[in-house]
C-alpha cells in the first residue's frame, strides 16, 4: 500500500469493512480473551486491549494477535512526564500494534509523537472519556459551564497542531472534531451500543450506523460482542450495520 495514502486509507484497507470495527477484549485473563477471539473467528480483524487485560498478560497476547494477522489497539491512555511517555511509546512501538492511546495533554502528546518516530504505530489522543458529562467535568475542576463537546474541540485543535494521528471521542462530537482535524486524521469512537443494548457506564452513546454517519472511521465495541451468547454473530451483525452506513 502506498505511503502517500491518507492515514484513514492506510488504516482501513479498501474492501474490508471489518477493520472499521474494533472489538474490545475487556476480559480478565488472556485465556478467556483467546477463547473469545477463537469464537469470533474471521468476523473480527481488529482488537482492543485495555487496562484489564494488558496487566494480566495482554502484551504477549498483542504479539500473538499481530503474528496471526490481526490488528491491535493498545488502549493504555498514557499520561506522565514527557520522558516517561516517550520511552514508553518507543517500547510499545516494538510490539507491532496499530494504535496506542495517550491522554490529550500537550506535553504528553508531543512526547508520544517523538516516541513513535520511525515506526508504523499511530497515536490516538483521548479527549474526554465517554463516561463523562458536564457535571463530571465540573467535579474535576474544569470551568463551570464547560461542556464535554467544547473540551473535545479544544483538545482536538491541540492534537492536530502537534501531529497526532487521530482522536478518540464520543460519536456525538465526531462531526465537530472532523471540522477541526480535517479529512485525513482518524476518528475512533467508543461508547457504541447496538439498538436495544444496555448503556452500562457510558453516557454519550450511539448505534454503529449512527457512529459511522457522524464521521467515525473506527468503532470500538466490547460488551455487546464479548458478552453475547454468540460473539461471532454479534460481530457480524455490527459489521453489516457498518457496511450499510458507509
Automatic annotation (TrEMBL):
Classification lineage: Bacteria, Pseudomonadati, Pseudomonadota, Alphaproteobacteria, Hyphomicrobiales
Q: Which SUPFAM superfamilies match?
A: Ribulose-phoshate binding barrel
Query: What does the record give as its pathway?
Result: Pyrimidine metabolism; UMP biosynthesis via de novo pathway; UMP from orotate: step 2/2
- EC number(s) given by UniProt: 4.1.1.23
Name of the featured protein:
Orotidine 5'-phosphate decarboxylase
Q: What is the protein's quaternary organization? A: Homodimer.
Q: Name one GO cellular component term.
A: cytosol
Q: Which NCBIfam families match?
A: PRK00230.1, pyrF
From what organism does this protein derive?
Microvirga subterranea
- Keyword Nucleotidyltransferase tagged: no
What does this gene product do?
Catalyzes the decarboxylation of orotidine 5'-monophosphate (OMP) to uridine 5'-monophosphate (UMP).
Q: Which UniProt keywords apply?
A: Decarboxylase, Lyase, Pyrimidine biosynthesis
Q: Which Gene3D superfamilies match?
A: Aldolase class I
Amino acid at each position: 500500500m502506498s505511503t502517500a495514502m491518507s492515514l484513514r486509507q492506510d488504516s482501513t484497507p479498501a474492501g474490508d469493512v471489518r477493520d472499521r470495527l474494533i472489538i474490545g477484549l475487556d476480559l480478565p485473563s488472556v485465556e478467556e480473551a483467546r477463547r473469545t477471539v477463537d469464537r469470533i473467528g474471521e468476523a473480527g480483524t481488529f482488537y482492543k486491549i485495555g487496562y484489564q487485560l494488558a496487566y494480566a498478560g495482554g502484551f504477549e497476547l498483542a504479539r500473538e494477535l499481530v503474528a496471526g494477522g490481526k490488528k491491535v489497539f493498545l488502549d493504555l491512555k498514557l499520561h506522565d512526564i514527557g520522558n516517561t511517555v516517550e520511552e514508553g511509546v518507543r517500547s510499545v512501538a516494538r510490539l507491532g500494534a496499530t494504535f496506542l492511546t495517550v491522554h490529550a495533554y500537550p506535553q504528553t502528546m508531543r512526547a508520544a509523537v517523538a516516541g513513535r518516530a520511525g515506526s508504523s504505530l499511530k497515536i490516538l489522543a483521548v479527549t474526554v472519556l465517554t463516561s463523562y458529562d458536564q457535571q463530571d467535568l465540573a467535579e474535576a475542576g474544569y470551568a463551570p459551564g464547560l461542556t464535554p463537546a467544547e473540551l473535545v474541540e479544544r483538545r482536538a485543535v491541540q492534537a492536530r497542531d502537534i501531529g497526532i494521528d487521530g482522536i478518540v471521542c464520543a460519536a456525538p462530537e465526531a462531526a465537530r472534531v472532523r471540522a477541526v482535524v480535517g479529512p485525513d486524521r482518524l476518528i475512533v469512537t467508543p461508547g457504541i451500543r447496538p439498538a436495544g443494548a444496555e448503556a452500562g457506564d457510558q453516557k454519550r452513546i450511539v448505534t454503529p450506523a449512527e457512529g459511522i454517519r457522524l464521521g467515525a472511521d473506527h468503532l470500538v465495541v466490547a460488551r455487546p460482542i464479548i458478552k453475547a451468547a454468540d460473539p461471532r454473530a454479534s460481530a457480524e451483525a455490527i459489521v453489516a450495520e457498518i457496511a450499510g452506513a458507509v
